[in-house]
Structures are given as C-alpha cells and as structure tokens.
Amino acid sequence: MVSILKPFFFRMRLRRLTLIAQKTQWTTTSTETTKNVAVSKNNAITEKYAQKLKEKAEREGYASIDELKAKILKRHHRQTTPDLPAQVKSLDKILRMEKILSQDMETICQLWTEYHAAKIACISDTLSADAYKKLFKRGQEFPMFVIPLTHPTGLEFYILQFQYHQCFFTSLLEYKTFAAESQPLLVLTYYIDLMDTKGVVLMHGEIGKPNILSKENAKYLVRWLREFYLDGEDKCEDNKSKWNLVVKFNREPNNFEYSELVNVIKEEK
Length: 269
Prior knowledge:
Pfam families: ATP11 (PF06644). This is 679_t:CDS:1. The protein is α+β, with helices and mostly antiparallel strands. The chain has one domain (about 1-269). The chain has helices spanning about 1-15, 15-25, 30-50, 50-60, 65-75, 90-95, 95-100, 105-115, 130-140, 170-180, 195-200, 215-230, 235-250, 260-269, and strands spanning about 120-130, 145-150, 155-165, 165-170, 185-190, 200-205. A six-stranded antiparallel β-sheet has the order 1-6-5-4-3-2, with helices on both faces. Strand 3 and strand 4 (about 165-170) form a beta hairpin. The chain starts with a helix and ends with a helix. The relative contact order is 0.14. Mean pLDDT is about 80; it is low at about 1-40.
C-alpha cells in the first residue's frame, strides 16, 4: 500500500500539466459529420420555436431575433469556461451557441445527451449549477480518489485526478506497470459556459481506448465519481462514509483501506 500510493500521489501531481497537454488532444477529434448533425438538429429546434423566440425578443425590447441572439452571444463570450488547455475545444466549437442559448435548460440537456448517444468513444453528463459548484470545490481541495471496476477476473482500480474543470482517470495497474509513462483512459471536461444563464453545466467525456475501457464502464466511473464527491454532510451516516473515504484517501493515503471502499460500493449496487 505505502509503496504504491505515496509515490503515485506526488508523481501524478508533478505530471498534471504534461498529461493535460498530451491527452486532451482526444477532445479535438470530433468530425465534421458530427458537427453537421448538431447543426441540423439545432436548425429544426429553431424553426419549431421561432414564434416563441420572436415573442421573447419583442418582450425584451429587441427589434429582431438576430438582435436577441447577438445579445445572448455577447453575454456568453464573457462566461466561457476558463482554465482549460488550449487543445480542448471550447463549447462553441461543439455546439451552435446562437441556437443553444435560446433554449431552456431541459432542451439543452436533451440535445447534449442526444449529441453523445451514438458516439462510441464519448460520454456525457449534465449537472445543476449548485451540484457542479460543490463538485468543483471538493475536487480542488481533494483532487484524487480511486474507483474499482469489476471484471470477470477480479477488480481493477482506476485513480482519478481533478485539474480545474477537467478530471482524468488512469488505470492504477497501468501506473504500477509503466509509472510515468501511464496514460489516462478517460478525460472529463466540464463546460461552465451556461452555468449562470441556464443553471446547467455540461460534461463531455473522451474515452482514450474504447477497446480497453468500454462506454458502459466509463459511465460507471462517472456515476461513482458523483456518488463520492457529491455526498453531502446532511445525509445519513451511511452516505457520509463515502465522502469521508475521499478525504481519507487525500489526507491519510497510508491508512486508506481498499476493502472499505469496495464494501461501500457493493452495498449500494
């Protein structure tokens, strides 16, 4: 335990920026076909809600829908997600923001889910503004944790690490084998562009090697990330133990018990 966790804890911190520079290239691999699909869907939505947009523009004192969109876009440019590496696509490179910003939160979440549904190497998630603020705060204070995946041959642990508005998942076994050359298999990017105006944060997840980490297992890792990091102090004692494990892993890594973590997950499956 000591020989694995302690060096990993410090060496991964030193390699944060290197990993970001190397692996966030995954988020730039969306094709033109995907972009066209998103545009087509958004055009259909705009036609459907054209009358509502016109009424909204008139109600707020704008001469046209285009003037309303321009105002919304100007507000959006002041709110784009900061602290992301240059290689990561901004949200307006993935979605047509002039279309999206005119929709309500429910529609935006539905579009985001549909956009990722058919992608083999991508997953998505949506969080309320309050939930993400809690996740971000805790992720910066306690940036590392482990989550076990069950395989036919046994358990495989993945270690996660938060870096501002991103989170990296790496196989603990791969790290033990390749040390500094280990590669994250899943990179999550949280877009806060719509957090203030729509009350929602959009998560885009890139799976580096789908043949090693399936989409289903990637979703499983994200599910338990949320379970542990969004566990609140106002819940029952059983739920509190999940957050306490995160704190213990970061503050007392030498005393962290993997069996306790596995038991918590088994009890809630």
